[in-house]
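in:
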């Protein structure tokens, strides 16, 4: 008997090792990871990430971001989905424990003219599935990685929310600056209308020059109104992200003061491993890994133990008074034999889904690296161009001053002044857009990491 037990243990151990249903997930050796990882284990969910507080320094923006994190409905839904996954994990853990049920019952019986017999039972039943071939274990492991995947999805939603709030916040800063430029330009062009009228009165210009200067002034006034409308719409977008009531969004007046130089010392490639979408993609791949283990374990027998213990006054056809204890025990071993190829088909489906998840994980890594490279390139490019735009604006301001002075002395035509003014306005707007794009490129780099 001893040797039979040893033989059975050896057979089971061999079966488990050969079918791989008790393996823990490890990153495949043939997976292209582009140098992001240094080992084959899953990245810990609590690994240190880049904190948004280290990137965004503007206290007003920080307050808005925190309000968004507290109130945004999309983020709250993602967090609730994570809580659902956590509940599923708890359920899969409890599957290892025996289940109990209490089902009291009673009957009355008798014949006409005779006394009535009362019988009752107070049984407690138990059932316990013994996880010999890893079905429950793989289900629990799959629930664990699905929980981590849901957490990473919530993290991705949070990162996107932070980036969107910051982007629209600095768009408001941009619009404020554009509005100031347009208002200053409108005032200057209004003054030019007056100058042109006086020069016409002095016989130096005709009505066509006055009409042209007035038309340009009215055009810039219309642009002022367009900017004011864009500011209102952008504020409403921020309010929507915050999940807040209608209000005026407070903001700073500069771009540079609100963004840190956190990335100036370079970026480690391993940071990509902490991206929520990368971690979620690997957790999804790991979930399908354990799903394959579940599908394989379905080919092996399942062992269930059960029993009943209770109190009854019925024993067969006899009624006992007082009542006595009753008990029963059972064990069942179920081995699938023929199920119309269902188990094999389920295994093939699980293996195909695992391969799909592997390819998706690999592509996510590739996309992450490209996004970071693009964001870094944008930060550098916008920063370098900013110097030239600044010099261009200074030169065009000198040109406007010179041509206006010459026009007053009759050396230049109004057309030359108009050309210089329009060139200056275009350069100022381009410089502002470049400053905004530089700030947004840092936000994009934060999201890319």
């Amino acid at each position: 008997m001893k040797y039979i037990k040893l033989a059975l243990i050896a057979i089971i151990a061999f079966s488990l090792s050969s079918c791989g249903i008790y393996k823990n997930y490890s990153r495949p050796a043939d997976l292209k990871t582009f140098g992001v990882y240094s080992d084959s284990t899953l990245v810990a969910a609590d690994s240190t990430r880049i904190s948004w507080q280290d990137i965004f320094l503007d206290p007003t923006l920080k307050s808005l971001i925190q309000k968004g994190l507290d109130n945004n409905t999309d983020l709250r839904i993602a967090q609730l989905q994570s809580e659902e996954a956590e509940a599923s994990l708890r359920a899969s853990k409890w599957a290892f424990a025996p289940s109990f049920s209490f089902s009291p019952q009673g009957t009355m019986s008798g014949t006409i003219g005779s006394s009535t017999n009362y019988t009752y039972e107070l049984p407690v039943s138990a059932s316990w599935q013994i996880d010999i071939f890893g079905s429950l274990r793989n289900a629990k492991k799959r629930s664990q990685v699905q929980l981590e995947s849901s957490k990473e999805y919530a993290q991705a939603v949070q990162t996107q929310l932070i980036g969107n709030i910051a982007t629209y916040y600095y768009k408001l800063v941009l619009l404020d600056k554009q509005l100031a430029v347009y208002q200053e330009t409108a005032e200057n062009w209004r003054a030019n209308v007056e100058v042109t009228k006086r020069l016409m009165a002095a016989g130096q210009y005709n009505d066509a020059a006055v009409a042209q200067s007035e038309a340009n002034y009215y055009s810039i006034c219309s642009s002022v109104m367009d900017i004011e409308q864009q500011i209102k719409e952008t504020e409403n977008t921020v309010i929507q992200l915050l999940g807040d009531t209608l209000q005026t969004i407070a903001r700073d007046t500069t771009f540079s003061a609100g963004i840190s130089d956190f990335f100036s010392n370079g970026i480690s490639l391993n940071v990509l491993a902490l991206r929520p979408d990368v971690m979620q993609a690997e957790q999804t791949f790991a979930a399908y890994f354990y799903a394959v283990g579940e599908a394989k374990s379905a080919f092996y027998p399942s062992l269930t133990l059960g029993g009943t213990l209770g109190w009854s006054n019925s024993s067969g056809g006899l009624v006992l008074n007082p009542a006595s204890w009753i008990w029963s025990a059972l064990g069942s071993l179920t081995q699938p034999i023929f199920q119309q190829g269902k188990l094999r088909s389920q295994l093939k489906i699980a293996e195909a889904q695992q391969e799909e998840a592997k390819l998706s994980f690999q592509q996510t890594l590739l996309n992450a690296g490209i996004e970071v490279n693009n964001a870094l390139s944008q930060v550098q490019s916008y920063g370098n161009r900013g110097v030239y735009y600044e010099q261009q604006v200074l030169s065009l301001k000198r040109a406007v001053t010179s041509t206006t002075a010459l026009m007053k002395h009759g050396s230049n035509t109004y057309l030359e002044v108009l050309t210089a003014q329009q060139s200056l306005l275009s350069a100022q707007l381009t410089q502002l857009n470049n400053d905004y794009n530089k700030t947004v490129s840092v936000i994009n780099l934060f999201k890319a990491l």
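note: The two ends are 62 Å apart (CA to CA).
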